[in-house]
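User: Continuing from earlier, I have the next pair ready.

Assistant: Great, send them over.

User: Here they are, in order.

Assistant: Folding the first of the pair now:
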Amino acid sequence: MDKAAELRQPSDNDGVNIRTSDHLVRGDLYTRKDLRERFQVNDATLNTGVFRPKGHDSVWLFLTINKQADRTQYEDSLDGDVLSWQGQSKGGTDRLIIEHVENGLELVLFFRVSKTQHPGAGFSYEGTFEYERHAAGGPPTNFTLVRAQRTVKAPARVVEQKPTTASGQGWMQDPEKRKLVEDAAQARLMRHYEVLGWIVEDTRVGNQFDAIASRDGETLYLEAKGTVTVGNSVMVTRNEVAWASDHPGECVLGVLSDIKFDKAGVLDPSVGTFQIFKWEPEDAELNPIGFDWKPRPRKRIG
């Protein structure tokens, strides 16, 4: 088993994982000893630069800019919200970083300029980051990660309904804004797979899916959903459900939530939380909003 596959192994923490970011404060200092005790970590690989703690839907990145002479001299930098970071020398965890959104994992950054910057060789917790792109070549692979705009837990369900609260997708009355939201979600989903080396085709017209992604003989059907809410539920159609049900393991659904418009009605492309899910609808995840009724001639009264 390669290193990335090993790090993706699920925990046996009663089948429920936590997200590290829910238990830390951005800007606070943490030593590896602090983290070991706080999260009851017994794994020696905590001392490496990329660590997936058991029982967490999180990957911990430890970054020291000015490295000691006996360490690999990776070229890294943190400039505001942009992290330029070199992966491990053998590339063993590259896929873990590239596919973290698809696998439901957050990237948590612990940062310091030097080992002696903070007491106890501690790190400043910089929050969560998202994979943006990587350059060809390597290893080590040159990654660009960007700071996540906000932390929103993944929706627990995909629901076919018209929500009555702001947590669900809801229905936008303004058709122009609705189109902008849909286009933003579509563009983000297509770009995600294009960066991963897939050939992506927009298929929104006349199909029950929004795009097709192809790579090395494999095909994925992509469905995109955008919402100005936190996206605890999204609206799906009967035909979309039918297609996904008929193509198990071949469909994914991308949700771009917390989309914002400025006062002039312009969509802000820098804001929003993007997540990707296996699109395998189950009855327990669906809430019908209506029924098809076929009038019977024998019931006609006028």
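And the other member of the pair:
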Amino acid sequence: MTVSELRDALRRQQQAYEPAPGAFDRLVRRRQRKQRVRRLATVAIASLVFGAALLVLLPLSDLDHGTAIIDPSTVGGLDVAWTAGVGDSPTAPIVHDGLVFVGTGSGELFALDARGGHVVWVGRLSGSIVSTPAIAGDQVVVHTTSGVLAAFDTACGSQGATCFPTWTGNTGDGAGSPPSVADGVIYVNAGDDRLLAFEGCSSGLCDPAWIGRIPSYGQPGSLVAPAVADGSVWTVLGTDTVVFPMRCDRVCEPTQRQFAGRMSIGPVLGDRLIVLGSSTGYVYGFRADCPGQCRAVWRARADAPTTPAVDDGVVFVSGAPGGGLAAVPELCRSAGAACDPLWVGDIHGSPTSTVVTTNGVVYVGSSDGNLYAFPKACDETCSPSAVVRIGSSAGGPAVWEGRALFVTAADGTLRALTVGGVDP
């Protein structure tokens, strides 16, 4: 091979290794695209991990809410979000930790999901549950007409499981009066002559820590929940208002007994008074810190009242003459006469539920099958802001996070009410 031929061969080989025009730019762009894809994938994975962490760390109530707060400006939009059947003669509901608890006349305690209304678990007891359950820490407590006080863990089951009581106590009471809880002690009436205090119960059969006792006159047991104020336990035994000390030995004598008519409603703690209702046409108020023998220092007219509510110095009394619901100042200069109401709201039918007030709205159920909602601040003659048809005699309601009301009815249903009827 000549020198010129060798030179030409080397030139051709050199040209074969030279990149085509623009090849380097295309290589750079491909690498940049790959880097962008990797960065986007990293961001997407980090977002998924962060979202999953939020679901684990935050409660559901902090993540939505699509439902509006129920107050005087929104209560007119109340509608039924869901309805659940719970059996015959349901009690008024109580809400705790996202669960709605309802007892029934057939002895069942239902725990339902507050958001969707499905049954989470159910407890079954002998006798009827005719009074509202009470929450004691992480337990829900019910009292049956067979004289059994029973406590269930609030998280005892799921997916409709049947639960059994953690502990029970024998009360000997056939009325099934409602329990109440204060400072870890569960108080419940038994017959017309005893108040029982249960404390420190954990499993099996539990005896009361102490018993408050008065003479029995053979009267029916009262369906009232005791209340604690100023170191004393107020209750109604038979038809008398009775006051016991919060702590005492095995058998405790009352410090006070009142005879202001035939008492049947209350006691309800106010800002300044203990409020109780009677079957004699009045609701009475007593000073919680009264020295010596207490006497009623306040009264308001009410025919067949249900349990009243007290909020910001005003007592909301059902069964008021000339209307269904009256707002009466907790302090008034009546000189022995009944206090004049600030306003009276008319309802049709007779009141059938405890009066409940929250977020500036006052609620009461009626025998005409409606739940009435009144603004707390109202004119002298007050019209309801909302009337929600329940379908039969309305009980309850219980309020959850200010966004949902739960109401039971005599037809054996539990309803959730929200603004616009959206799920809670």
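Worth noting for the second one:
Residues 52-64 have pLDDT under 50 and may be disordered. The chain is about 10% helix and 40% strand.
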